[in-house]
Write a structure and sequence with these properties.
The protein has 192 residues and is α/β, with parallel strands linked by helices. It contains six helices and nine strands; from the N terminus they run ββαβααβαβαββαββ. A seven-stranded mixed beta sheet has the order 1-7-6-2-5-3-4, sandwiched between helices. The model has no long low-confidence stretch (mean pLDDT 86).
Length: 192
Protein backbone atom coordinates (compact mmCIF):
# COMPACT_ATOMS: atom_id res chain seq x y z
CA UNK A 1 0.00 0.00 0.00
CA UNK A 2 3.04 2.24 -0.07
CA UNK A 3 2.76 3.27 3.59
CA UNK A 4 5.99 1.66 4.72
CA UNK A 5 9.43 1.30 3.09
CA UNK A 6 12.01 -0.98 4.70
CA UNK A 7 15.56 -1.57 3.48
CA UNK A 8 17.78 -4.30 4.97
CA UNK A 9 21.58 -4.28 4.70
CA UNK A 10 23.99 -6.96 5.90
CA UNK A 11 21.54 -9.77 6.60
CA UNK A 12 22.70 -12.01 3.74
CA UNK A 13 24.33 -14.46 6.17
CA UNK A 14 21.55 -14.33 8.83
CA UNK A 15 20.60 -17.96 8.08
CA UNK A 16 24.02 -18.93 9.49
CA UNK A 17 23.68 -16.95 12.74
CA UNK A 18 23.65 -19.26 15.76
CA UNK A 19 23.63 -18.55 19.48
CA UNK A 20 23.84 -14.75 19.21
CA UNK A 21 22.30 -11.97 21.22
CA UNK A 22 20.94 -9.58 18.60
CA UNK A 23 21.25 -6.06 19.98
CA UNK A 24 19.32 -3.33 18.09
CA UNK A 25 18.39 0.22 18.98
CA UNK A 26 14.61 0.60 19.38
CA UNK A 27 12.94 3.62 17.73
CA UNK A 28 9.55 2.08 16.81
CA UNK A 29 6.82 -0.41 17.57
CA UNK A 30 7.73 -2.38 14.44
CA UNK A 31 11.41 -3.07 15.21
CA UNK A 32 10.95 -6.62 16.47
CA UNK A 33 8.76 -7.56 13.49
CA UNK A 34 11.40 -6.31 11.06
CA UNK A 35 14.08 -8.42 12.73
CA UNK A 36 11.88 -11.52 12.97
CA UNK A 37 11.37 -11.34 9.20
CA UNK A 38 15.13 -11.61 8.53
CA UNK A 39 16.64 -13.69 11.35
CA UNK A 40 15.78 -17.40 11.51
CA UNK A 41 15.33 -19.30 14.77
CA UNK A 42 14.94 -16.11 16.74
CA UNK A 43 13.55 -15.55 20.21
CA UNK A 44 12.92 -12.29 21.99
CA UNK A 45 13.15 -11.01 25.54
CA UNK A 46 10.06 -8.95 26.29
CA UNK A 47 9.40 -6.57 29.14
CA UNK A 48 6.49 -6.23 31.50
CA UNK A 49 4.37 -3.86 29.39
CA UNK A 50 4.13 -6.06 26.26
CA UNK A 51 3.27 -9.07 28.44
CA UNK A 52 0.34 -7.10 29.86
CA UNK A 53 -0.82 -5.57 26.57
CA UNK A 54 -4.08 -7.19 25.39
CA UNK A 55 -2.89 -7.28 21.77
CA UNK A 56 0.64 -8.56 22.43
CA UNK A 57 0.42 -10.81 25.50
CA UNK A 58 -1.18 -13.90 23.94
CA UNK A 59 0.97 -13.94 20.77
CA UNK A 60 4.13 -13.37 22.86
CA UNK A 61 3.30 -16.30 25.14
CA UNK A 62 2.43 -18.56 22.21
CA UNK A 63 5.69 -17.63 20.47
CA UNK A 64 7.56 -18.60 23.63
CA UNK A 65 9.26 -15.25 24.11
CA UNK A 66 11.34 -14.87 27.24
CA UNK A 67 9.98 -12.55 29.96
CA UNK A 68 12.55 -10.07 31.26
CA UNK A 69 11.38 -10.56 34.85
CA UNK A 70 12.27 -12.25 37.08
CA UNK A 71 15.89 -11.70 36.03
CA UNK A 72 17.14 -15.12 37.17
CA UNK A 73 14.56 -16.93 35.05
CA UNK A 74 15.34 -14.71 32.06
CA UNK A 75 19.06 -15.44 32.34
CA UNK A 76 18.62 -19.20 32.66
CA UNK A 77 16.22 -19.33 29.73
CA UNK A 78 18.46 -17.17 27.53
CA UNK A 79 21.53 -19.29 28.36
CA UNK A 80 19.61 -22.46 27.47
CA UNK A 81 18.31 -21.09 24.19
CA UNK A 82 21.66 -19.62 23.17
CA UNK A 83 23.36 -22.96 23.95
CA UNK A 84 20.76 -24.64 21.70
CA UNK A 85 21.77 -22.28 18.86
CA UNK A 86 18.84 -19.86 18.98
CA UNK A 87 19.34 -16.16 18.41
CA UNK A 88 17.75 -13.84 20.96
CA UNK A 89 16.70 -10.25 20.27
CA UNK A 90 17.21 -8.08 23.33
CA UNK A 91 16.58 -4.34 23.07
CA UNK A 92 19.29 -2.92 25.36
CA UNK A 93 17.46 0.37 25.83
CA UNK A 94 14.70 -1.56 27.59
CA UNK A 95 12.00 0.50 25.87
CA UNK A 96 11.58 2.54 22.71
CA UNK A 97 13.90 5.51 22.26
CA UNK A 98 12.45 8.57 23.98
CA UNK A 99 15.05 11.35 23.76
CA UNK A 100 17.99 11.74 21.43
CA UNK A 101 19.21 8.92 19.22
CA UNK A 102 19.40 6.37 22.03
CA UNK A 103 18.22 5.80 25.60
CA UNK A 104 20.77 4.62 28.14
CA UNK A 105 21.38 0.87 27.98
CA UNK A 106 20.14 -1.54 30.61
CA UNK A 107 22.99 -3.90 31.55
CA UNK A 108 20.91 -7.07 31.48
CA UNK A 109 21.32 -7.62 27.74
CA UNK A 110 25.02 -8.33 28.17
CA UNK A 111 24.71 -11.06 30.82
CA UNK A 112 23.25 -13.83 28.62
CA UNK A 113 26.02 -13.32 26.05
CA UNK A 114 28.74 -13.36 28.71
CA UNK A 115 27.34 -16.39 30.52
CA UNK A 116 26.98 -18.36 27.29
CA UNK A 117 30.33 -17.21 25.88
CA UNK A 118 28.45 -16.13 22.77
CA UNK A 119 28.43 -13.01 20.68
CA UNK A 120 26.45 -9.79 20.50
CA UNK A 121 25.42 -8.77 16.99
CA UNK A 122 24.65 -5.08 16.73
CA UNK A 123 21.86 -3.86 14.47
CA UNK A 124 21.10 -0.24 13.60
CA UNK A 125 17.49 0.76 12.95
CA UNK A 126 17.24 4.09 11.18
CA UNK A 127 13.93 5.88 10.64
CA UNK A 128 12.73 9.13 9.17
CA UNK A 129 9.87 9.61 11.63
CA UNK A 130 9.16 8.92 15.28
CA UNK A 131 5.54 8.19 14.33
CA UNK A 132 5.69 4.75 15.99
CA UNK A 133 8.10 5.80 18.72
CA UNK A 134 7.71 6.28 22.44
CA UNK A 135 4.73 8.50 23.27
CA UNK A 136 3.32 8.39 19.73
CA UNK A 137 -0.42 8.98 19.57
CA UNK A 138 -2.39 7.03 16.99
CA UNK A 139 -4.73 10.03 16.81
CA UNK A 140 -1.94 12.19 15.40
CA UNK A 141 -1.43 12.13 11.65
CA UNK A 142 1.88 10.59 10.59
CA UNK A 143 3.90 11.66 7.56
CA UNK A 144 3.71 8.69 5.16
CA UNK A 145 5.37 6.64 3.92
CA UNK A 146 7.40 5.69 6.97
CA UNK A 147 10.96 4.76 5.98
CA UNK A 148 13.24 2.37 7.82
CA UNK A 149 16.76 1.22 7.08
CA UNK A 150 18.03 -1.73 9.10
CA UNK A 151 21.70 -2.59 8.90
CA UNK A 152 24.07 -4.88 10.74
CA UNK A 153 27.01 -3.53 12.70
CA UNK A 154 29.96 -5.01 14.54
CA UNK A 155 29.84 -8.38 16.25
CA UNK A 156 31.20 -8.27 19.80
CA UNK A 157 32.51 -11.51 21.29
CA UNK A 158 31.59 -11.99 24.92
CA UNK A 159 34.11 -13.67 27.17
CA UNK A 160 33.19 -15.50 30.33
CA UNK A 161 34.15 -13.64 33.45
CA UNK A 162 33.87 -10.21 31.85
CA UNK A 163 31.90 -7.64 33.81
CA UNK A 164 28.47 -7.09 32.27
CA UNK A 165 28.58 -3.38 33.07
CA UNK A 166 31.85 -2.91 31.15
CA UNK A 167 30.66 -4.97 28.19
CA UNK A 168 27.37 -3.05 28.11
CA UNK A 169 29.17 0.31 28.21
CA UNK A 170 31.47 -0.73 25.36
CA UNK A 171 28.53 -1.62 23.14
CA UNK A 172 26.53 1.46 24.18
CA UNK A 173 29.56 3.61 23.30
CA UNK A 174 29.70 1.96 19.89
CA UNK A 175 26.01 2.77 19.27
CA UNK A 176 26.41 6.37 20.49
CA UNK A 177 29.38 6.89 18.16
CA UNK A 178 27.37 5.56 15.21
CA UNK A 179 23.85 6.98 15.67
CA UNK A 180 22.55 10.52 15.53
CA UNK A 181 19.16 12.19 15.73
CA UNK A 182 18.09 15.21 13.74
CA UNK A 183 14.54 16.19 14.67
CA UNK A 184 12.42 13.08 14.12
CA UNK A 185 15.07 11.29 12.06
CA UNK A 186 17.41 8.71 13.56
CA UNK A 187 20.27 7.79 11.25
CA UNK A 188 23.58 6.00 11.24
CA UNK A 189 26.67 8.17 11.11
CA UNK A 190 28.39 7.64 7.75
CA UNK A 191 31.72 5.81 7.91
CA UNK A 192 34.72 8.15 7.46
Amino acid sequence: MGRLHVEFLGFEDAADWRGSVVCPNHPSLLDALFLFSKIPDVDCVIGRNPRRDPLLAVPARRAGYVPSEPAGVMLRECRRRLADGANIVIFPEGTRTAVGALNGFQGGFALPAIQSGGSVRTVFIECDSMALGKGFSFFKKAHLPLRFRISTGEVFKASRGRRARDFSREIEGYFRANLRRDGNRISRVPAP
